[in-house]
Amino acid sequence: MNTFTSTISINKPLTEVYDFLADFNNHRQLMPDNIQEWTSTRDEARFSIQNMAKLALKIEERVPNQMVRIIPAEKPPFDLELKWSLSFNNDHTDILFTIGAELSMMMKMLASGPLQKLADHETQSLFNILNKA
């Protein structure tokens, strides 16, 4: 399993960050511009990546104020898991976003850069959105 991680700290209460991430309807705001045809509920999201693939994801596990784990709702091009881990330190929330992907050697060469970029984009978007609020 290949892992791609990104971390940030936000000057917001843990519950506010968790509540945002626990609802898949909010995740559209975290995605890059090449995400199209987004539809979501609190528990699932479906979208396409421009010129690449269609994905269906679901929130598999929620641990209040600690973690949100996301897995494919349908068979993806490769096995995938996304996980938001949260912890509170003094006056800010620390966030670790992990993308785990089972990639063949060829897919690793093609997808490693974009997956790391996605991890960084999502955490930076979360930081920007919650700091405006």
Automatic annotation (TrEMBL):
Organism superkingdom: Bacteria
Protein name (database record): SRPBCC family protein
Species in which this protein is naturally found: Mucilaginibacter gossypii
